[in-house]
Task: structure prediction
Amino acid sequence: MNLAKQHILEAAARLFERQGYHATGLNEIIRESNTPKGSLYYYFPEGKEQIGAETALWAGEQISKRIREGLSQAEQPAQAVRMLTLRIANAVEQSNFSAGGPLMMLAAETATRSERINAACRKAYRQMQDALAERLGDDNLAGFVLTTLEGAILLSRVQHSGDALRHAAEYLYTYIKARER
Amino acid sequence: MNLAKQHILEAAARLFERQGYHATGLNEIIRESNTPKGSLYYYFPEGKEQIGAETALWAGEQISKRIREGLSQAEQPAQAVRMLTLRIANAVEQSNFSAGGPLMMLAAETATRSERINAACRKAYRQMQDALAERLGDDNLAGFVLTTLEGAILLSRVQHSGDALRHAAEYLYTYIKARER
DNA sequence: GTCTATATGCAGATAGAC
DNA sequence: GTCTATCTGCATATAGAC
Result:
């Protein structure tokens, strides 16, 4: 993929993550990406919706990678999920509660308003769930962990505190641990 | 509270729930509320942000009531939470995945962009958590249930399927049940 | 209390020069 | 590939009549 295009995508991902899809203007994306203004419609001829969809796909791959990395750093699945969740808590706090995955905003705002972006978000979430399931050996459980992570990220952002994520880390740990036997 | 004002608030809540805060225009709220156009700035002189904040507070009270009602319909807390979650799953499906609480969108979109709306959302979430804690007898556990519900609503909406909520219902049931002993 | 008219600005998008 | 200029439309908000 072209470098300028990649810059636009990454800037869009950051902005969607911080403030959402509808609150982000194309001018803002251009500015934030340090990309020549004339490039946007050259690389994304179908406009904002295309940017949204490609951002979701790209984000899904990035996050899945990080999930795999994070989960590989502990012996037992329960402990791995706990550590991953605590890492997210730190990341969210250090970003002043603007981090937490570009997907959540994009997915929530377009669930019933853009079929194209929605399809991309579903695919991205599926990838994330697969990454979790690889380690947990249970797709349903992976779905529940994903659910919990998204909910906890949302509440942590709203409450301007990583506590929701830290609590989630402990509950998930206890739950998965109990299952291991 | 004045009736016209109440109509505006309820229309705003529905629209924010379906499509989000930034995607909803004031004209749309007027149209959907069947309220005279000149009334909006009469009742909400501080504009859209005031509407957002008051909507969040109102929604928080409504949802807390429904949580209390829902949780009172079973003998044991574990079963009560399960039934509440399944009820939400049905509601979300029957709304074509546009329902799921006016708060989520509002809260996510404004977490770092409007202190006023953010404060209102926090208060609303606190009320909801209190309503859960009353029945569960454990504020941390109530927070975890809230986290799970919000995450599951998000994923159900994105995936256009109530499965995430139904799975969450079973996991929460198992978890709370195990604690009862 | 509610109306119409309007101010002002930015949104997404397009055309055509270079 | 990138530029500038511009179109169209809607956004929030305000003023002043009734």
In short: Chain A has a mean pLDDT of 97.
